[in-house]
Amino acid sequence: MTHKEAQTRIQKLREEIAHERYLYHVLDTPGISDAALDSLKHELYTLEQTYPDLITPDSPTQRVGGEALNIFQKVEHAARMLSMEDVFSTEEFSAWYTRVCERVDTNQLDLYCMPKLDGLAVSLEYKNGQLVLGATRGDGRVGEDVTHNIRTIESIPLSLRTPIDAQKKAHPILKNLPQTLIVRGEVFMPVKAFNQLNKEREQTGEALFANPRNVAAGSIRQLDATIAASRPLRFVAWDLITDMGQTTHEEEMALLNALGFATTPYSERVADRTGVERMFATLQKGRARMPFWIDGMVIRVNNNDVYSELGVIGKTPRGLVAWKFPAEEATTRLLDVVWSVGRTGAVTPVAELEPVFVAGTTVQHASLHNMDEIERLGLKIGDTVVIKKAGDIIPKVVAVLTKMRTGKEMQIKAPTQINGSAVYKKPGEVALYCADPHAFDRRLQAIAYAVGKQVLDIDGLGEKTIAQLLERGIIANFADLYGMSKDELLTLEGFAEVSAENAIQAIYVAKTVPLHRFITALGIKHVGGETARRLAQTFLTFDRLQQATREELLAVEDVGETVADAIVEFFARQDNQTLVNTFREHGGVIVPAKRRERGALTDKTFVLTGTLETMTRTQAKESIEQLGGKVTGSVSKATTAVVAGENPGSKLAKAQQLGVAVLNEKQFSAMLASLST
Prior knowledge:
- This protein is α+β, with helices and mostly antiparallel strands.
- It has five domains: 3-62, Helix hairpin bin (Helix Hairpins, Orthogonal Bundle), CATH 1.10.287; 74-324, 2-Layer Sandwich (D-amino Acid Aminotransferase, Chain A, domain 1); 329-433, CATH 2.40.50.140; 440-591, 5' to 3' exonuclease, C-terminal subdomain (DNA polymerase, domain 1, Orthogonal Bundle); 605-676, Rossmann fold.
- 38% of the residues lie in helices and 21% in strands.
- The longest helix is centred in the N-terminal third of the chain and has 24 residues, at 3-26.
């Protein structure tokens, strides 16, 4: 990037951040998520560090917060409410750690770590032990007087514990309370309360809250205190501003507890860098099980003298940093749109993005769903966009920052053909379709889907291998795999004697296929795994399904007219009949389904977590279902038992929390054996 390009990008970033900050802090109507705003700020900060001559006093990186709303009385903070430097990776944290060590001439820091709650920061002032002021951060120097709402939060003491109470129960420093005492912390709403509040609003037809931070901020910044009083808000203290002789932040937390404040849970003193990294990993792994939302970890130099000596740079203390969890949203630029053909012929637009780190991975592609979605977003090539990725969910573009446009952006046009095949749109549908049922990409995706773990479960046949087999004319569909020889595999790139033998063996094992899996492998439009299972349980044999009338299909649970028509149309085509015949000619066996009767596990629900050694999770699921049981993806009080293998996830902790029975693999296998005899 040239200096001029950087200057243009920086200006655009400043304008967009200023606009989003105004929406968020002044009007209480955020336009984008906190994670997306963090991403813009981080990009601006990085560019300004690269081009320091472009830093100006009015840059968003040089200020804290926003202007106070005029409807509240403004109050000046006795001590500035500073911001924190954000880091987003182990490398960035290590760089901060090294800088601080060098500044205080040490090789190891004594630190105090706290979960970073996602709420509203407030400052509380007490006079002679009585609460007299509650204020928001505002711009760091001047905030808003929200005392009337703060007083409604039961976890905030209206009067401090008296010196005699403190002398009996807490720190000796509390024998003499100062006339003025200032405490800072976070107002937030617990997970359970937030979910219940939204449930109630849904029942009354009110708009749902987007996140708990919005609820906390919106409740505290209301003129009518009854609104805040009606909501189960909580407060935790994380800083004692008044000097009472405390020497460490750890001691401050004990003092705050003694004064009657709840402090941030799961906080602790950490002796070295490795300990910080370990604690961060623990918090990140366990965040979903916490009773409140957190978006990272705050790391502070524990010794107060060292912390003061480090001082402040700009608007952030050098001895304090917020290590944020990998954001589920980030901003980046759309470089291009490519169109891919799926197994059903649907033509889908895929965004090619400037690489960006989000939710723990580097993302370069995102789903755009269809042309209607592109038009809804008003998306153009070259736009700055917000992308979202949570866990294993495919990244998607959720917003366009139109104010970032330079005028060089280009319109996105729907294709009229793809790989030589015509593209059309069916009446009443938003998707585009490839007209040729034998198009290469369609066949490739159809076969890759069929051999997948949840369908035929054939190892060793990835998309690259399937593409080679199609290109060389060795196969035309998944049924042809069963007639393929090892010698044919050996002609492909990436195959040697052992790998070819393993692939042929995997294909041989997959010749015997349960009916519901074979139906799924066919790739009938609108028929996924669950619908295939219901069809199998209804018709029991493949031949009976092939002969089913539209009326008989409509009688199956969850099969409507669209699905029934797709099934009838599929079996009416000769090429699909040929595929089934080819499978059988190569020795394929379609195992009939058993009529579901009440079994030993009927009305019982199980959840699987972790890796099982003696069976796959799919096999475990089928074993439970054969005995009449049900397997679900989440743990609740209604769950009969959780089956936990190696390296179980959060489902195990949820089961223990709810008192749900937990079976290890040995116990689970023994249960199946006893019930199957």
